[in-house]
């Protein structure tokens, strides 16, 4: 009899075409399913992820669920799967959950971090964006306050997505100086496709002085992607954490 398991994982998305399985390209989901299939006698194993990170995006803490017959203990499965996966994907924990638990739909809060550096940092070329422009962190944080609350974030969404609505509730949005880098932190109940990268691009326009902090409120109100800033590169973006009511 199969049981439902939650897997907590970490990955460096540099060499992958995102999370979601696709034909002819290497993805995080595709690699994990391939290895699980090998472990369980080459049966078809389908996993359900907590969301879809784009090509080049990383995850410090992501989850997926899968229904499996208990051929191994969770500790044995963790050990065996990690030995089979490439070095840029790691399984941190395997958790028993109820049969109705869902990695995507049950998440109550998601947090993303975006990193930039303003001087050359050779060891951060794959996990931070080099942006050598003067910025006002104070103005960017003033603008970030307009993101808070439940609003329609169409202006920061990729066009023609398959969601029912573009409303998200943002709980926290703030820039911080962390060593030689700047880190943008944003938490919400859900995110639209490309939303964080578009938000960061817009806030950088504020930091450069091209948009006023109050202008972000107007950009949200018009619900037009063309009014927001450009999407920043994927490599600086991390899915940092996800919260569930039962984990």
Strand and helix layout:
Elements: E1 3-11, H1 28-39, E2 48-49, E3 58-68, H2 74-84, E4 89-96, E5 109-117, E6 129-130, H3 137-144, E7 149-152, E8 167-178, E9 181-188, H4 195-208, H5 215-222, E10 237-243
Parallel strand pairs: 3-10, 5-6
Antiparallel strand pairs: 1-3, 1-4, 2-3, 5-9, 5-10, 7-8, 8-9
Please, could you describe this protein's structure?
The protein has helices at residues 28-39, 74-84, 137-144, 195-208, 215-222; strands at 3-11, 48-49, 58-68, 89-96, 109-117, 129-130, 149-152, 167-178, 181-188, 237-243. Strands 1, 2, 3, 4, 5, 6, 7, 8, 9 and 10 form a 10-stranded mixed β-sheet that branches. With 247 residues, the protein is α+β, with helices and mostly antiparallel strands. It is built from 5 helices and 10 strands, in the order βαββαβββαβββααβ. The radius of gyration is 19 Å and the shape is globular. Helices cover 21% and strands 29% of the residues.
Which features does this protein show?
247 residues, alpha+beta, 29% strand
> SSE order, as H and E?
EHEEHEEEHEEEHHE
Helix content: 10-25%
Percentage of residues in DSSP E strands: 25-35%
Q: Please count the beta strands (DSSP E, at least 2 residues each).
A: 10
What is the gyration radius calculated from CA atoms?
19 Å
Q: Would you identify the regions where 5 or more consecutive residues have pLDDT less than 50?
A: none
Specify the oligomeric state.
Answer: single chain
Structural class: alpha+beta
Rounded mean pLDDT is 96
Distance between the termini: 23 Å
């Amino acid at each position: 009899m199969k049981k439902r398991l939650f897997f907590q994982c970490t990955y460096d998305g540099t060499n992958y075409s995102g999370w979601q399985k696709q034909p002819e390209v290497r993805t995080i989901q595709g690699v994990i399913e391939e290895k699980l299939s090998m472990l369980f006698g080459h049966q078809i194993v389908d996993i359900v992820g907590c969301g879809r990170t784009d090509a080049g995006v990383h995850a410090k803490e992501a989850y997926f669920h899968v229904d499996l017959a208990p051929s191994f203990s969770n500790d044995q499965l963790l050990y065996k799967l990690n030995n089979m996966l490439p070095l840029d994907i790691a399984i941190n924990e395997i958790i028993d959950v109820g049969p109705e638990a869902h990695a995507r739909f049950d998440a109550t809060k998601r947090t993303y971090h975006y990193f930039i550096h303003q001087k050359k940092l050779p060891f951060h070329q794959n996990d931070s964006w080099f942006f050598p422009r003067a910025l006002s962190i104070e103005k960017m944080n003033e603008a970030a306050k307009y993101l808070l609350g439940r609003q329609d974030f169409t202006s920061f969404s990729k066009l023609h997505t398959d969601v029912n609505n573009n409303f998200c509730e943002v709980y926290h949005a703030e820039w911080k100086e962390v060593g030689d880098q700047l880190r943008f932190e944003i938490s919400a109940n859900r995110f639209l496709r490309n939303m964080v990268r578009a938000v960061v691009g817009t806030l950088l326009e504020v930091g450069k002085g091209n948009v006023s902090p109050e202008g972000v409120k107007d950009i949200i109100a018009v619900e037009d992607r063309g009014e927001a800033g450009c999407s920043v590169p994927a490599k600086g973006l991390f899915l940092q954490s996800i919260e569930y009511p039962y984990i």
